[in-house]
Design goal:
The strands form 3 sheets. A 3-stranded antiparallel sheet has the order 1-2-3, with no helix packed on it. A 3-stranded antiparallel sheet has the order 4-5-6, with no helix packed on it. It has a two-stranded parallel sheet with strand order 7-8. The chain has 6 helices and 8 strands. The chain folds into 3 domains: 64 residues, no CATH class; 44 residues, no CATH class; 60 residues, no CATH class. The protein is elongated. It is of the alpha+beta class and 215 residues long. Its main location: membrane.
C-alpha cells in the first residue's frame, strides 16, 4: 500500500502551471500596415506608429512635456486624412526611462529564482503603443526572476499538516526522493514532519523547479 501511494501521489498532486510567458495585448492593436485592416485617422494613431522630431535644444528636459512636437506616420503605416505634420505633446525621456507600467517585457521561465548568480536575466522590452518617448521603442533590461510553476505555499503547508509523515508535502513540491524517504520511515516518527513544516513555513524548502510559490 505504501508503494502504491508513493507511485500515485506525484500524478495526483501535480500543480497546474501558471502562464509565465507574456501575451500580446488584445486591447491594443498594432499599427495598421495592410489594406485588410480599416485605416484609422492619422491624427488618432498611437505614438508607436509615429515618428516625432523632438528638438533637444527647445526645452527638452528630462521628464518635461514638450507641446506641439511635429509628428508624422511611419512610412509603412496606413491611415486616412492629413499625414502631417501632426502636433503632439511628447514627454522628454528615452524609452528605456519609461516607468514599468508603460512597457512590457518578454518573460522567461528558464532562470533560477534561488540562484545567486542567475537570479536576474536580460530580456527585451517594448514601450506601450501610446507611450511617448524618444529613441528606440525596444530596449534591453535586467529583470528579477519571479516565474511560478504553479506550486502554492498554502497547499504545501496543508500537505505537511495532514500527511506530512507520509511525505505528501515533498511529493507535491516535486521532491519525490525526499518524499520516499519520509514515506518509508513514517516521517522520522514525526521529527521530519515537524522540521519540514518549519522549513516550508519560512520558505527554505521550495519547489523542485526553483520557481516562486504561486499566489
Amino acid at each position: 500500500a505504501s508503494l502504491l501511494l508513493a507511485l500515485l501521489l506525484p500524478q495526483l498532486l501535480a500543480p497546474v502551471a501558471s502562464g509565465s510567458e507574456s501575451e500580446p495585448d488584445a486591447a491594443s492593436p498594432p499599427c495598421p500596415q495592410t489594406a485588410d485592416q480599416p485605416p484609422p485617422p492619422c491624427d488618432r494613431l498611437p505614438f508607436a506608429c509615429l515618428s516625432c522630431r523632438v528638438n533637444a535644444t527647445a526645452g527638452c528636459r528630462l521628464g518635461a512635456a514638450v507641446p506641439a512636437v511635429p509628428c508624422e506616420p511611419l512610412p509603412d503605416v496606413n491611415c486616412t486624412g492629413d499625414r502631417g505634420p501632426l502636433p503632439r505633446t511628447v514627454v522628454c525621456r528615452y524609452c528605456h526611462q519609461l516607468p514599468p507600467e508603460l512597457y512590457t517585457c518578454d518573460k522567461r521561465a528558464t532562470c533560477k529564482v534561488r540562484d545567486p548568480v542567475f537570479r536576474h536575466y536580460e530580456t527585451n522590452c517594448t514601450a506601450a503603443l501610446n507611450a511617448s518617448c524618444i529613441g528606440r521603442r525596444s530596449f534591453r533590461r535586467m529583470l528579477r526572476c519571479d516565474w511560478s510553476g504553479g506550486y502554492k505555499w498554502s497547499v504545501s503547508m496543508w500537505c505537511t499538516a495532514l500527511l506530512g509523515g507520509f511525505g505528501l508535502d515533498r511529493f507535491y513540491l516535486g521532491q519525490w526522493r525526499e518524499g520516499l524517504g519520509k514515506l518509508f520511515s513514517f516521517g522520522g516518527f514525526g521529527v521530519w514532519s515537524l522540521v519540514d513544516a518549519i522549513l516550508i513555513a519560512v520558505g527554505y524548502i521550495s519547489p523542485i523547479d526553483e520557481s516562486v510559490y504561486a499566489p
